[in-house]
Design brief:
Layout lengths: L14 E4 L3 H12 L5 E4 L2 E2 L2 E6 L8 E5 L4 H5 L3 E4 L6 H7 L8 E4 L6 H10 L4 E7 L3 E5 L2 E4 L6 E5 L12 H9 L4 E3 L3 H22 L11 H19 L6 H14 L6 H7 L20 H15 L1
Parallel strand pairs: 1-2, 1-6, 4-10, 6-7, 7-8, 11-12
Antiparallel strand pairs: 2-3, 4-5, 8-11, 9-10
Helix pairs in contact: 6-7, 6-9, 6-10
């Protein structure tokens, strides 16, 4: 995907990562490998992290390092903020971006329909360079503050927010540097809006089904293809109701869903793990967007199961 032009990168760009979990630490390890020095803000505020991220395989080095806590001065001079929290924490994380300087870029790399929270912050700070993104890498927690990439396949996909002004379409210097130095991991997509909504569809189907059925692995979904097709059908219709007709062929999206399940067949689903551990899930931003029980009986039933359990 061609990238818009940009200015030369700064010599020492300040990067803030909001969210110090598996995805945030994975991003930090990649940026550190580029010679950058990100800072962390966690759910409860700035946090310093010592972590280990195992490489893809024996040929890929393990990263072990220290990520400092972000100070107020770091945020006030940052050129990029990467938001890697769960969907239910996105609104609070984006509020942290209000202290960024004008012209800084913001990458929300989240699952689910986070568009309302993003729109509110874009209206509040139109002088920031707002993006939309998601992560398709699997990153496992192997021990406290120890993580491992689950496969080589995946990407951190980033593109322009549909609300961004045309003047914000060009890459900022730090964005251009990251895309140029790590093209395998970080990719620019001009059509990110529909790709993000397709990712929402994938997450709604896979995460909701594995979590409600308490499946051990994503691949277990393939044992009941009729149910998979039925949930996909409802989710496709819901996406069309929410955002208009899909500019993507339905069969192509369904086959892409199957391919994703096959590629991640051995993975434990993150939402299924959250349910197993008694943690909140992102269901409000996935199946929870369906409110009509007659039109979406499967989605509303799955959402109700996950919400009722989290409330107890």
């Amino acid at each position: 995907m061609a990238q818009p032009s940009s200015m030369p990168p700064p010599t020492d760009p300040r990067i803030i990562i909001i969210g110090d979990g598996a995805v945030g630490t994975g991003v930090a390890s990649l940026l550190a490998g580029l010679g950058l020095a990100p800072r962390f803000i966690g759910r409860s505020g700035p946090v310093a992290v010592d972590a280990v991220v195992q490489g893809y395989g024996t040929d890929d080095a393990t990263w072990q390092g220290h990520v400092p806590a972000a100070t107020a001065a770091d945020v006030a001079t940052a050129s990029l903020a990467v938001v890697t929290v769960k969907a239910f924490d996105v609104a609070q994380a984006l509020r942290e971006c209000r202290a960024l300087p004008a012209g800084a870029a913001v990458w929300p790399l989240g699952n689910g329909a986070i568009y309302e929270a993003l729109s509110l912050e874009i209206e509040r700070r139109p002088d920031l360079v707002w993006r939309l993104g998601y992560c398709t890498f699997g990153i496992s927690v192997t021990a406290p503050r120890h993580y491992a990439w689950r496969s080589r396949t995946g990407e951190f996909a980033v593109g322009p927010s549909h609300q961004s002004a045309p003047s914000k379409s060009a890459l900022t210097p730090v964005e251009a540097m990251i895309f140029a130095r790590a093209p395998r991991q970080f990719k620019w997509h001009s059509q990110i809006a529909w790709l993000h909504r397709r990712k929402w569809l994938f997450n709604t189907v896979i995460n909701s089904m594995t979590a409600t059925r308490q499946l051990a692995h994503n691949g277990d979904l393939l044992a009941d293809l009729p149910s998979l097709v039925a949930v996909f059908h409802e989710t496709w219709l819901l996406g069309g109701q929410l955002w208009g007709a899909w500019p993507l062929a339905r069969e192509d999206v369904y086959h892409a869903l199957l391919k994703l399940i096959e590629a991640t067949a051995a993975n434990e689903n993150s939402m299924a793990r959250d349910r197993r551990l008694g943690r909140p899930t992102e269901t409000d931003f996935l199946a929870g967007l369906a409110h009509d029980e007659r039109a979406y009986p499967l989605l509303t039933a799955m959402h109700r199961t996950l919400k009722n359990e989290s409330a107890t």
